[in-house]
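User: Fold this; C-alpha cells only.

Assistant: Input:
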Amino acid sequence: MPEIIIYTSNLCPYCTMAKRLLTAKGATYKELNVDTTAGLREKMVQKTKRRTVPQIYIGERHIGGFDDLRALDLKKELDALLAA
C-alpha cells in the first residue's frame, strides 16, 4: 500500500470524512495538522496550490480534497490506488 498523507485542520468535517473513508478501506495514513504545526499550512499551499483542507496524497499522486477522494471511490478507482 502506498504512503498516504492527509493535511488536516481542527474542526474540519471534510477531514473527518476523508479519514473515515480511508479507515473503512483499511488504509493507514499520516495526518499532518496545519493548525498545530507552525508553517505547515504555507508548505501545504506551496505543494498543492490549494488553501483548503483536507489535501490528500496517495503515494506521489495529489488526490485533492474529500470530494475528489469520494469521487474516486464512486468510480471504483480508489481501491486500485490503495492497492498499488
